[in-house]
Amino acid sequence: MAASETATAVAVPASVSASVSAPTNLPQHLNIVALETVFTGLPAITLPPPYTFSLTIYERTHPDQVGQRLKDADIAIVTTVLIQAAALDPAITPRLRMITAMVAGTDSIDLPLCRARGIRVLNAHGCNVDAVAEHAVGLYFACRRKMVPSMQQLHQNLWPERGTIIHSVLINGLAARSCRDETVAILGYGGVGQRVATLLKALGMNVIVAGRKGHDTAAESRVPFLEALKVASVVVLCCPLTDDTRNLLSTAEFAAIKEADCVVINVARGGVVDEGALLKALHSGQIGGAGVDVFAVEPAGPEVSPLLTPEVAASGLNLVVTPHTAWLGAQTKANQHRMLLENLQGFITGNMNPERIRA
């Protein structure tokens, strides 16, 4: 679907913008392509005068279609579709000058190649902080109280058959801790990690922030990585997926966890946790439970994730899984729409929020 519009101005708060050179040789009429509106929809697009634009909207785009759909685009609007070398070849997308992501994560975009080509990449930094942090807290309670295994036993009619199923809420034989008895290690202390810390402290938990993996010492106010795992009864992952954080938790790290009822919550990216090692840690009792919103391969299913097989679903493990929906919320969508308009305005005028510049 395509539409042409006459541009109007949108104000960007001066307190959060940074002066960056406005793009040179930018056509006055811009071709904007939105590759996947299924997740967030679009606001009414506006550009500062005298710019006008044509807007082409796709509900979904397969990675193999990206290059063809962006071949005449000056600006791409994306969420999570892969924007990699094939689509970024100058022969394929010669006009492309900007990619604006309506999400916080940009690991699906080849940022080094965009920098090399001079393609500006902006994201929606912080758009989902509240929603993701609150989802993490929800996963924590579901795991700590073993809601999924006990619900499964109720559906199996085991309460009247056995007289009691209180054992179904014990974690490795231990009754649930109160919040004031929890020590939470947060891995990744950006916007989401800070918000999680605030919420969990308000519940009475002792919150520590882990330092970088592989460092024997940590910055002030942080606890060395392995030491944090050794004392934690809850581990919450809030870090981005990078070369340094890939498989941040794997076999050795799960072995370092000492609390038999420790629950691990991942609202970061699937690749920061080794899913096979996580499953083994649950089966062996090295950890007491896990709440997972993100997967190494998405869309996730039993063919690509060991956490989603029928055997795991029937096993009674204290595992809560959600389909990468922690970000979803009314305020998140409002933030995404506002930030998209600010990013478009900022790109054209050279006044961009520095927190959103990724390339």
TrEMBL record:
Gene3D superfamilies: NAD(P)-binding Rossmann-like Domain
Segments forming domain D-isomer specific 2-hydroxyacid dehydrogenase catalytic: 56-355
Domain of life where this protein originates: Eukaryota
Keywords tagged on the record: NAD, Oxidoreductase
InterPro entries membership: D-iso_2-hydroxyacid_DH_PdxB (IPR050418), D-isomer_2_OHA_DH_cat_dom (IPR006139), D-isomer_DH_NAD-bd (IPR006140), NAD(P)-bd_dom_sf (IPR036291)
CDD domains hit by this protein: formate_dh_like
Domain D-isomer specific 2-hydroxyacid dehydrogenase NAD-binding: 138-326
SUPFAM superfamilies associated with the record: Formate/glycerate dehydrogenase catalytic domain-like, NAD(P)-binding Rossmann-fold domains
Record bears the keyword Lipid metabolism: no
Keyword Protein biosynthesis on entry: no
Pfam families named among the record's database cross-references: 2-Hacid_dh, 2-Hacid_dh_C
Family: Belongs to the D-isomer specific 2-hydroxyacid dehydrogenase family.
Name this polypeptide is given: Glycerate dehydrogenase
Highest classification ranks of the organism: Eukaryota, Fungi, Dikarya, Ascomycota, Pezizomycotina
